[in-house]
Design a protein that fits this description.
This protein is mainly alpha-helical. The protein has helices spanning 3-24, 43-62, 91-99, 113-125; strands spanning 32-33, 39-40, 70-71, 74-75. The chain folds into two domains: 1-30; 43-125, Cytochrome Bc1 Complex, Chain D, domain 2 (Orthogonal Bundle), CATH 1.10.760. The chain is built from four helices and four strands. The strands form two sheets. It has a two-stranded antiparallel ribbon. It has a two-stranded antiparallel sheet with strand order 3-4. A hairpin with a 2-residue loop joins strand 3 (70-71) and strand 4 (74-75). Helix 2 packs across helix 4 (113-125).
């Protein structure tokens, strides 16, 4: 076997190992996609997310977000409509947005980290 063949074989093995480790990475944390594009989530993760989403919906009302933002036709019109925000923004981008403020949107960095996660989980559920 020549040097070029060995290098090619070694490259293929390394690429295969990298691909398999990517696939196996954190399979217990990721949703599994069905053939019809619906997501199957591990039960514990789905239950936790559902609870956070309910708490986040409550925070959305209590903290006054609904006064400026619409969701499914209800709420204010000063801020953008958030009906499908979960399909447009990442979780990280929403968290960043809560921590920074604009002239119209107050700074929500004072929220407890658990409240921030709950609010973002609710926003991520809006698709």
């Amino acid at each position: 076997m020549g040097r070029a063949s060995r290098n090619l074989l070694l490259g293929g093995v390394l690429l295969s190992v990298a691909f398999v480790s990517l696939l196996a990475g954190d399979t217990f944390q990721r949703p599994v996609e069905r053939a019809n594009n619906s997501l199957v989530r591990p039960a514990a993760l789905a239950g936790r997310e559902e609870g956070q989403s309910r708490q986040g919906a409550s925070l959305f009302r209590v903290r006054g977000c609904i006064g400026c933002h619409q969701v499914k036709g209800s709420g204010g019109t000063i801020g953008p409509d958030l009906t499908v925000v979960g399909s447009r923004w990442s979780r990280e981008a929403l968290l960043d947005r809560l921590e920074g403020h604009t002239m119209l949107m107050p700074d929500f960095a004072h929220l407890h980290p658990a409240e921030q996660r709950e609010l973002v989980q609710y926003l991520m559920s809006l698709r």
